[in-house]
Specification:
Blueprint (H helix, E strand, L loop, with lengths): L1 H18 L9 E3 L12 E16 L2 E8 L9 E4 L4 H4 L9 E12 L6 E6 L6 E3 L2
Parallel strand pairs: 1-2, 4-6
Antiparallel strand pairs: 2-3, 2-5, 3-4, 5-6, 5-7
C-alpha cells in the first residue's frame, strides 16, 4: 500500500513538473525582451519579433541557415539556427525577411571560436516552431 502511494506521488509530481513553463514545447516561457534569452538556457521559450536579416552558410556537411531577429549579426542577442537536415522545411529563408515571426524552441548556448564570447541560439527543426504573424 505504501509503495503504491509513493508510486502515485512520483507519477503526479512528474506531470506537475512537465506543466511548468519552459519545460516543454507545449508550455514555453513567453519572452518579450531578446536580451533576456540568456537567462532561459535549456528551457523552451516563445519570442515574437521582426526578422531583419537571413543568411545561409555552406559548410562541409551542408547548408546552415540563420534568421536574425530584432538586430543583425553580430549585434543580435541570439541566433535562430536551421541545420541542413531541416533546411528544406524552411527554404528559402529570404521569405522571412522583414516579416514578424513567432519562434518557439529550446535555448542553447555555445562558445564562439573566433571571439570566445558565449552566444545563444534557438534551433528550428520543425515548421511548428515558426509562425508568421504578419
Amino acid at each position: 500500500m505504501r509503495a503504491l502511494f509513493l508510486l502515485v506521488l512520483l507519477l503526479s509530481a512528474g506531470s506537475v513538473f512537465a506543466q511548468m513553463p519552459g519545460k516543454s514545447f507545449k508550455n514555453p516561457i513567453v519572452v518579450s525582451n531578446p536580451d533576456s534569452i540568456q537567462f532561459f538556457e535549456k528551457q523552451y521559450v516563445s519570442i515574437t519579433g521582426p526578422i531583419v536579416s537571413t543568411k545561409e552558410l555552406m559548410r562541409e556537411d551542408g547548408v546552415i541557415g540563420y534568421l536574425n531577429m530584432f538586430k543583425a549579426y553580430p549585434d543580435n542577442a541570439f541566433d535562430i539556427t536551421i541545420f541542413r537536415k531541416s533546411m528544406a522545411f524552411f527554404a528559402p529563408l529570404e521569405q522571412y525577411q522583414g516579416k514578424r515571426l513567432k519562434i518557439t524552441g529550446k535555448v542553447s548556448s555555445f562558445l564562439q571560436k573566433k571571439t570566445g564570447i558565449r552566444r545563444y541560439s534557438i534551433r528550428l527543426s520543425n515548421v511548428k516552431q515558426l509562425e508568421v504573424m504578419d
